[in-house]
């Protein structure tokens, strides 16, 4: 059976704004029916790394907050701490970054709560009995909330091909322990001849697992080569993303399928006890090659498209990727090919990553369906 996905493009005029369209999306996805009086309503989003500018703007969150309050729910904005060394690895820095990016209570109209606690260890073990995990570690406050509104900035992603609702649920709603278990099979290695010894990867490694060793024999430049200690590496993947020469790599054909499946099983755990109480919004704006965990926002790979809403995370992600791939690619962006409408933009950026895996597995374990009906409002 097909799932409904509602779509609002960005065409507006003096009589109808994008806020009006967002209201309609919330109505069509029955936000009112998902909230009871005094319900605690988590609005799960990505606050953006310091320096990033692509995240969903706070004024849109204010609109959602006001709607929740109108139904006598008690909304709060939330995210979880990161594995990597950045400005969101523990709750104090995370909240400070959120405030700097405009997510203050005076702007959004609701408090901010870091769902997995001060250092990412506030956790609930959720039993799911799936092929990989019997239990998954979900952020405590995500689990305890009554209703979940998942607000996702749809982007590319170096490990999942794209980052959508499934990633926002699976990675974004898990505790530090949950994130570690998802990344546990990722073991990056350095291709020596491509490494320039710039040491950028060292500054992003949260475990100090990377060191610079003596140059390879025959190295004309005499610079050192990065080395990753597999005993210290936690597999967060930040070094892969930050390496300017692509010298840090993993075994894509072995690593990516299992990572995506682990992520999807955590997504299942995040919503397991919230049947009929979850709503997804995907913002297809500033669709950058990498997610908002980066401390920058690269040139979008396609033009802005619009906003989608659905109760089905698999369907909304399938619809989102179809809409992106249906657009003409931006030749000024990281896309080096597949510029024509209908060509795969995400495989052009990450040729080794098959993003279909997360969608197919989400369907397989009963999280949703890839079959959808797109309804334009």
Question: How would you characterize the overall build of this protein?
Answer:
The chain has an eight-stranded mixed β-sheet, sandwiched between helices. A two-stranded antiparallel sheet has the order 5-6. It has a two-stranded antiparallel ribbon with strand order 8-9. It is globular. The protein has helices at residues 18-28, 58-70, 91-100, 105-108, 140-144, 165-170, 176-183, 200-204, 238-242, 252-271, 313-325, 345-349, 356-364; strands at 3-9, 40-44, 74-79, 112-114, 123-127, 135-139, 147-153, 155-157, 161-163, 189-190, 210-213, 225-228, 248-249, 278-284, 306-310, 372-376. Helix 1 (18-28) packs across helix 2 (58-70), helix 7 runs antiparallel to helix 10 (252-271) and helix 10 crosses helix 13 (356-364). With 377 residues, it is an alpha/beta fold. The protein contains 13 helices and 16 strands. The chain has two domains: 3-184 and 253-376, LarA, N-terminal domain (Rossmann fold, 3-Layer(aba) Sandwich), CATH 3.40.50.11440; 189-249, Alpha-Beta Plaits, CATH 3.30.70.20.
């Amino acid at each position: 059976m097909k799932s409904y996905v509602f779509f609002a493009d960005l065409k507006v005029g003096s009589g109808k704004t994008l806020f009006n369209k967002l209201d309609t999306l919330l109505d069509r996805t029955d936000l009112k029916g998902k909230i009871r009086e005094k319900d605690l309503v988590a609005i799960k989003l990505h606050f953006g790394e310091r320096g990033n500018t692509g995240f969903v703007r706070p004024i849109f969150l204010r609109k959602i907050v006001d709607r929740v309050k109108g139904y006598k729910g008690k909304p709060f904005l939330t995210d979880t701490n990161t594995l990597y060394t950045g400005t969101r690895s523990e709750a104090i820095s995370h909240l400070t970054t959120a405030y700097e990016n405009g997510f203050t209570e005076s702007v959004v109209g609701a408090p901010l709560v870091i769902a997995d606690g001060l250092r990412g260890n506030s956790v609930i073990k959720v039993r799911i009995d799936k092929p990989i995990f019997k239990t998954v570690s979900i952020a405590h406050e995500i689990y305890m909330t009554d209703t979940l509104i998942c607000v996702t900035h749809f982007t590319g992603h170096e490990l999942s091909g794209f980052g959508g609702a499934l990633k926002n649920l699976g990675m974004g709603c898990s505790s530090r322990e949950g994130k570690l278990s998802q990344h546990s099979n990722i073991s990056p290695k350095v291709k020596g001849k491509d490494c320039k010894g710039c040491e950028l990867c060292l500054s992003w490694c949260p475990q100090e697992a990377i060191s610079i060793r003596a140059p390879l024999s025959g190295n004309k430049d005499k610079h050192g080569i990065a080395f990753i200690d597999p005993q210290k590496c936690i597999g967060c993947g930040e070094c892969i993303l930050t390496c300017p020469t692509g010298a840090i790599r993993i075994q894509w054909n072995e690593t990516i399928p299992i990572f995506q499946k682990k992520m999807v099983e955590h997504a299942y755990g995040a919503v397991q006890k919230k049947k009929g109480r979850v709503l997804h919004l995907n913002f297809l704006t500033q669709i950058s090659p990498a997610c908002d965990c980066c401390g920058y926002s690269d040139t979008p790979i396609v033009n802005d498209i619009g906003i989608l809403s659905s109760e089905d995370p698999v369907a909304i992600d399938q619809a989102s990727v179809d809409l992106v791939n249906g657009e003409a690619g931006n030749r000024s962006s990281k896309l080096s090919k597949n510029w024509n409408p209908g060509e795969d933009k995400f495989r052009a950026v990450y040729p080794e990553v098959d993003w279909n895996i997360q969608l197919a597995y989400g369907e397989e374990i009963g999280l949703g369906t890839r079959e959808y009906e797109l309804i334009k409002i």
